[in-house]
Structure formats: structure tokens, C-alpha cells
């Protein structure tokens, strides 16, 4: 019995979904509506004290943090290997996973909030804003809400974030000029960890960051999107996304 | 042939040292004098583009990022196991390693800079400060230098950082009330990852955070300090630290 608590549009939850699909593991989904702040419900906070998605519950085991979850799935379900056997390639894989968590995630987050949450955040009264941010266990998230609601990021600040992403894409283009996948010749958790952020960059109309300028990244994106696992991202959007 | 580039007082480098000692792996040390900014030497930047310690070179393989390095050592030298076999305990181990990287490291860093770098940073001319920070590949480090040199952290800011550490220590005390070590009944990379930060808190006179208030943490600290591996931290201090 394996249950994934996710939001259809949350990048970290998408990493876990892709891993489940690649490994052909049976799962049940529970959708957490972030716009309704269901991630702060006391019952959910018991599973995930940070109040974020995803959370994995496998039998009695609760696992949080997407990078930890996908390594857990690899340990618990070793079939359909997504972690290369050579220690040096595993190190490469984990370096990319850490770069996704530390640099890509943190840099794309303000850009995403500006695009998707700012106009809503600016309609909130001071009282509501205070109430919402006070409920957030992660203070860095509360700070971003405060910023987009009341003191929007300047163009200079946003371009610093974008520049950090471009640095990673440069490293990625160099790596993919040598190897088929990020951790060598095998598709791995590193490629999975990076995938949702490319989908996010498409939502932000940032395909210009690779199309025509970083050919090895552009080729990698095509190969990623052609994998059967990728279709799960559209399926959960249809299941749980806004009905328009 | 295994070489570790370290600084005697750098917490992340100490994680790797402790792992090498626990696993009884032979190694050579190269000391990087951070006060002389040797981490920005072009030759070192070729190994470690982020310009930080540690860097591990094993045969031809260069591995950076301390959490990635210690998992690499476990993969490459499986004897003297430091990663529990059960997937659920491995997930626990990695959750703690990630908490150390994401929360403990980032929260203790400003406190350490205030104590150890601020008085020096404030003597720097604008030109020198600009020159030093411009050379730093990691812009978050440059920002901390800028802060301690020119607009010191307020007491309120520092107490927010300290509070984040206290939250982690609360979780740790709960975990250690259940299990002997952070990832269960076996000493693991999670305990190693946490150890240098306790040494750092002692340097910052913060033993009050556990002595008499968080008994399970206090007991864990005693057991950590009694391990033969712990003595390496004093040995590198004697080898490379300030001669007074």
C-alpha cells in the first residue's frame, strides 16, 4: 500500500510521480489543494510538519522531502534501476539532485510566485496575509508570500535568479555533451529530479533558455518528453488541475 | 590514492574527515587556507568551481559537496558500514543529512561569521571588500561577507537563526528518545553529518542548547565525542590551525 500526497503543479511532487511511473509501482494519490492551504491542515501537518508536498506513505512508513523519497523508492523497489551502479556515477547523480534542490528550486521559486501567485497575493488584506503566513511552518515560504504581496521583487532581483538557472543550464549542456544522461549513460534519478523544472520553465515561457542556444539540453528535453513516464504530468493536471 | 582538500575549521570538510576515520580509509590532506582565500586559486577552482571546501579526489574521480562525498565513500568503500540496510532507516538518515545541509548549516553560518569574521571584515576597505566578494563564485557567501562588513545582522535576525537551530535540536531530542542514533540503532552518516555543527556550537559557547535541557541530545554528544574518530578534529586543528 503506497500513497502519495501531491499537488498536480508542485515540482517536488512531480519528481516522485515520475519515479513511481518509471519503476511501475502501484500507488494511490491524495491531492492537496495548495490554493486552499490544505497543506496546513492539522492532519496533514502530522504527516509532514513542514507543511509542503509531497509526502509518501508506504505501509506504515512516512517519508518526506522529494530527494529523500526518490532514493527511498530506489532502495525499497530496486527493480527498474534508476541509480547507476558505479560509485562515481552515483556521486554525479547526487550532485545534480543537490543542485536541483539548492539552486534550481530556489531560483525558479520567486519567478513562479511572481507569475502564478502575485496577483492573488496582492488582493489579500493585511489581516488575511498575516494569518496565512503565520500558519506556514517554512519561514522562507512565508517571506516569499510577503514579498509578492507587498514588496514585489525588482527586475534586477529576478534577473539574478534567472542567471543562477542559466549557470546550471550551462553546466548541464557541458555534461550532456559528454554523456547521454546527467549521471552517465543510464537514465537516473538526476534526470527525474530535473524534469519538473523544465516543465515549470515552459509554463514561464522560458524555452529560449535552451532552444537554439544549448543544443545538448534541448536534445535531452526532447528525449525526456518522449518517455512514457512523462505523460503522467498531464494526467494529474487533468485529474486535479483547474477545470477551464 | 585519495586526497582530501580541507580547512581544519570548515564544518563540511570535517564531515568527510570523520567518515574517512570511521571507515579506516587511508588519505592525504591538502590544507586550503580560507583566510588567504586559497579556495579561489584558479587551480583549486578547476577542482571545485564553487570555491569551497571540501573536495575529494579519489584516483581520477573528483567529488564535491560534503553530503555527496560521504555517500560516495560509502558506495566506494562499503566496509565498516555507515548506511543502515533498511530502506526506511536510509530515508531517515538522508532526511537528517538534508536537514543539516538546509537548516543547520545555513542558520549557524551567520552566527559563525559574526563571531569569527566580522571584526576582520570590518577592517577591509571598500575596494578590498569588493575585490574579495567579486571573486566568490557563491553569491550567498559574498552576501554574508557584505553583511558582516557593512550592515551587521541585528540581534533579531540572529535570534531567528538560533531559533531554527533550536527547532532542529527539539526534533533531534525526540528522535534520540526513541533510537540510539539518528537513523536508528546503527551509527550512520546522519550522526557524522551533525557532529561538526556541535563542535561549532561549542566554539560559539552554545552548549546551553543541550546541556540540562535536551537530555537525549546531551547523551548523544557524549557518545559522539567518545568515538575514536572524533579525535581527528583536534589533530587537524593542531596540524593546520593557528599556532598560538
How would you portray this structure in words?
The structure is a homodimer of 244-residue chains. Chain A has eleven helices and four strands. Chain A is an alpha+beta fold and 244 residues long. In chain A, strand 1 (2-6), helix 1 and strand 2 (28-31) form a beta-alpha-beta unit. Helix content of chain A is 59%, strand content 7%. The A-B interface holds A 61, 63-65, 67-69, 71-72, 75-76, 87-88, 90-91, 94-95, 98, 101-102, 139, 160, 164 and B 61, 63-65, 67-69, 71-72, 75-76, 87-88, 90-91, 94-95, 98, 101-102, 139, 160, 164.
Nutshell version of this structure?
2 copies of one chain form a homodimer. With 244 residues, chain A is an alpha+beta fold.
Secondary structure layout:
The structure is a homodimer of 244-residue chains.
Chain A: E1 2-6, H1 11-23, E2 28-31, H2 42-47, E3 55-58, E4 61-64, H3 66-76, H4 87-116, H5 118-121, H6 126-134, H7 139-150, H8 155-178, H9 189-203, H10 215-225, H11 231-240
Parallel strand pairs in A: 1-2
Antiparallel strand pairs in A: 1-3, 3-4
Helix pairs in contact in A: 1-3, 1-9, 4-8, 4-9, 6-7, 8-10
Protein name (chains A, B): Glutathione S-transferase
Domain GST N-terminal (chains A, B): 1-81
Domain GST C-terminal (chains A, B): 86-243
Amino acid at each position: 500500500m503506497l500513497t502519495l500526497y501531491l499537488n498536480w503543479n508542485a515540482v517536488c511532487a512531480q519528481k516522485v510521480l515520475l519515479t513511481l511511473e518509471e519503476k511501475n509501482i502501484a500507488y494511490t494519490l491524495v491531492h492537496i489543494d495548495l490554493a486552499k492551504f490544505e497543506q496546513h491542515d492539522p492532519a496533514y501537518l502530522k504527516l509532514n510538519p513542514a507543511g509542503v508536498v509531497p509526502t509518501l506513505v508506504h505501509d506504515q512508513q512516512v517519508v518526506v522531502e522529494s530527494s529523500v523519497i526518490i532514493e527511498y523508492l530506489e532502495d525499497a523497489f530496486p527493480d527498474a534501476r534508476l541509480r547507476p551502479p558505479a560509485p562515481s556515477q552515483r556521486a554525479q547523480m547526487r550532485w545534480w539532485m543537490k543542485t536541483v534542490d539548492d539552486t534550481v528550486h530556489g531560483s525558479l521559486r520567486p519567478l513562479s510566485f511572481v507569475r502564478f501567485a502575485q496577483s492573488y497575493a496582492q488582493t489579500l488584506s493585511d489581516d488575511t496575509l498575516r494569518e496565512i503566513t503565520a500558519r506556514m511552518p517554512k519561514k522562507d515560504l512565508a517571506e516569499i508570500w510577503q514579498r509578492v504581496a507587498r514588496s514585489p521583487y525588482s527586475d534586477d532581483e529576478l534577473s539574478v535568479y534567472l542567471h543562477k538557472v542559466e549557470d546550471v543550464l550551462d553546466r548541464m549542456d557541458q555534461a550532456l555533451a559528454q554523456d547521454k544522461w546527467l549521471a552517465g549513460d543510464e537514465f537516473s534519478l538526476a534526470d527525474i529530479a530535473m524534469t519538473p523544472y523544465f516543465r515549470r520553465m515552459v509554463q514561464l515561457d522560458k524555452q529560449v533558455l535552451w532552444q537554439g542556444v544549448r543544443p545538448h539540453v534541448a536534445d535531452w528535453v526532447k528525449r525526456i518528453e518522449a518517455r512514457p513516464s512523462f505523460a503522467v504530468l498531464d494526467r494529474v493536471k487533468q485529474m486535479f488541475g483547474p477545470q477551464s
